[in-house]
């Protein structure tokens, strides 16, 4: 992989993170007075001014921004306005719960979506194909929040089989994972089906069949490896979808993760925690896309050569 290609991708990733951090910082400050929203309009004026002074909210936005960037380079991302703890600590204590939910969802997504796409492609233009793709379209069309509420209504309220909130046991994972994996598995199924159909129409597949290679060996040895390569492109979007879907799902099921913390912090105007949470999300998404770009350049050197010449 050319060094120039690698540097281009890393610089773009860092620039993207810087733009996101800047936009979020300015948007949060311009959305209202955090001190006034924390204490309320009926609070003592001196108390509000004291909070502004303590957190530097009485300074111009550009000065607050310069101070914030300077603190980042010193490893200081601010303290929570609500309890005074380090904002990084507040966010990081929620990360394990979010990661556990995302990993299980990813595993379920791959175990369902990829085999479903392969199955559909191998039964192209049959009832099995149409039925599988109909289910995929339905899964992709149902919003996360609606599916989550529907599952709670059925399995928690009506049948009383599963808990509707919390994360104490494996039973708490079932509905959140189903809610997130339904749409993701549908995406992988449709993408894998298209990729498999394209590979199966290639001349080398027909040549292998003409030489008498068994059909199962053609699928496993020739079609699947080549059809799997384009799915690398989906991986970056998959991480982003998991994060966005996680924010919604965690709030529907009262899951104690980063997504719920982010929504609560926005509501409470805890700016430092919001900034750290969004920075973590941005770094995760940008890093995932960077890995995808580098992997694609490694798998297909023509991609890196072409972009290096541009």
Give your account of this protein's structure.
With 310 residues, the protein is an all-alpha fold. The chain has two domains: 23-92, no CATH class; 96-256, MetI-like (MetI-like fold, Orthogonal Bundle), CATH 1.10.3720. It is 79% helix and 0% strand. It is built from 15 helices and no strands. The protein has helices at 3-30, 34-39, 45-55, 61-73, 87-92, 95-122, 127-141, 144-158, 171-200, 203-210, 215-228, 231-252, 258-268, 271-299, 301-309. Helix 7 (127-141) crosses helix 9 and helix 9 packs antiparallel against helix 12. It starts with a helix and ends with a helix.
Number of strands: 0
Q: What share of the residues does DSSP label as strand, in percent? A: under 5%
What is the share of helical residues? over 70%
Task: State the low-pLDDT regions, or none.
Answer: none
Total tally of structural domains: 2
The CATH architecture of the largest domain would be: Orthogonal Bundle
Per CATH, the superfamily of the largest domain is MetI-like
Level-1 CATH class name of the largest domain = Mainly Alpha
Please give the count of helices: 15
| CATH domain topology of the largest domain | MetI-like fold
Backbone CA Rg? 24 Å
End-to-end Cα distance, whole Å, is 16 Å
- Label the structural class: mainly alpha
| Major sheet attributes | none
Mean pLDDT: 86
Order of SSEs: HHHHHHHHHHHHHHH
Overall 3D form: flat
């Amino acid at each position: 992989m050319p060094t120039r290609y690698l540097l281009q991708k890393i610089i773009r990733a860092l620039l993207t993170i810087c733009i996101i951090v800047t936009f979020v910082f300015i948007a949060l400050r311009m959305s209202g007075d955090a001190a006034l929203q924390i204490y309320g309009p009926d609070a003592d004026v001196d108390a509000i001014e004291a909070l502004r002074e303590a957190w530097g909210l009485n300074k111009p936005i550009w000065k607050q921004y310069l101070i914030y960037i300077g603190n980042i380079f010193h490893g200081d991302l601010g303290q929570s306005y609500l309890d005074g703890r380090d904002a990084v600590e507040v966010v990081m204590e929620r990360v394990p719960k979010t990661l556990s939910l995302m990993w299980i969802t990813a595993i379920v997504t791959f175990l369902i979506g990829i085999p479903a796409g392969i199955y559909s492609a191998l039964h192209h233009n049959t009832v099995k194909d149409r039925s599988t793709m109909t289910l995929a379209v339905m899964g992709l069309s149902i919003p996360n929040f609606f599916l989550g509420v529907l599952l709670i209504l059925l399995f928690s309220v009506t049948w009383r089989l599963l808990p509707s909130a919390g994360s104490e046991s494996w039973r708490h994972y079932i509905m959140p994972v189903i809610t997130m994996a339904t749409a993701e598995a549908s995406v992988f199924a449709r993408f894998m089906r298209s990729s498999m159909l394209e590979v199966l129409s290639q001349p080398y597949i027909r040549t292998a069949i003409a030489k008498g290679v068994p059909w199962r060996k053609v699928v496993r040895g020739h079609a699947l490896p080549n059809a799997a390569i384009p799915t690398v492109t989906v991986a970056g979007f998959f991480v982003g979808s998991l994060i966005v879907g996680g924010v919604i799902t965690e709030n529907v099921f009262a899951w104690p993760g980063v997504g719920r913390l982010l929504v609560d912090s926005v509501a409470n105007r805890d700016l430092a925690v919001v900034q750290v949470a969004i920075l973590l999300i941005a770094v995760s998404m940008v890093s995932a896309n960077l890995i995808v770009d580098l992997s694609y350049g490694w798998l297909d050197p023509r991609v890196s050569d072409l972009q290096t010449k541009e």
